[in-house]
Write a structure and sequence with these properties.
This protein has 196 residues and is mostly beta strands. The chain has one domain. The protein is 4% helix and 49% strand. The chain is built from 1 helix and 15 strands, in the order E-H-E-E-E-E-E-E-E-E-E-E-E-E-E-E. Strands 5, 6, 7, 8, 9, 10 and 11 form a 7-stranded mixed β-sheet that branches. A 4-stranded mixed β-sheet has the order 4-1-14-15, with no helix packed on it. It has a 4-stranded antiparallel β-sheet with strand order 3-2-12-13, with no helix packed on it.
Length: 196
């Protein structure tokens, strides 16, 4: 399984101001067309920061979407891979994944046989699972998730890992990986994000 690496370099002249103000170095992963959960909110960032991951995913039922709240699991988690599906059964248990005969590469599904429910997707970053997506509304029936290897990077206040966000505005950079396994970005002395 391929490992992806994102290097984030922060100009040393910016560190005192960012640290004093209490900023977190934040990452979000795109799912479908959305970034809606802080995948990593790192208060312990330094001048050189490295984030690594592979295409390893989990799905689970979650609490309703609420801006600024942390994603909380409401069910057991199940590992899932592309072209698989998990059933959330009528007893509110996430069943182990099965092959999805109609599945497409790059996505996986949850079949909800329970009540209308929100669902979340998690993936590892630096060896620890954290959430990359929470459905904005509760769902009955089937939902497909399509995680993209595209990461948004920014500095945020009160931005803990697993926080739900509706709109990441302000100064950020989107980093699409495509076929590449490693990319690097730099936060300049002028406070701008650039790919390097």
């Amino acid at each position: 399984m391929a490992t992806y690496t994102l290097n984030v370099r922060v100009d040393v002249s910016r560190l005192p101001e960012l640290k004093e103000a209490g900023y977190h170095l934040c990452l979000a992963r795109k799912v479908g067309n959305d970034y809606n959960v802080i995948w990593k909110g790192d208060k312990q960032f330094m001048m050189q920061n490295k984030f690594q991951w592979a295409q390893e995913y989990q799905v689970f039922a979650s609490q309703r979407f609420q801006e600024g709240a942390l994603v909380e699991a409401a069910s057991n988690e199940q590992d899932i891979a592309y072209k698989q599906e998990c059933t959330f059964d009528r007893h509110a248990i996430m069943q182990p994944p099965k092959s999805d005969p109609s599945g497409v590469d790059g996505s996986f599904k949850v079949l909800n046989d329970y009540e209308t429910t929100n669902f979340a997707v998690a993936t590892k970053v630096n060896g620890v699972f954290s959430v990359i997506y929470n459905t904005p509304s509760a769902i009955k029936g089937q939902i497909a998730f399509t995680p993209k290897n595209e990461v948004r990077v920014w500095f945020g206040l009160r931005s803990e890992t697993n926080t739900m966000v509706t709109n990441i505005t302000g100064n950020h950079i989107d980093v699409p990986f495509g076929a590449l396994l490693e990319k690097s970005v730099y936060y300049t002395a002028d406070g701008e994000w650039v790919l390097i």
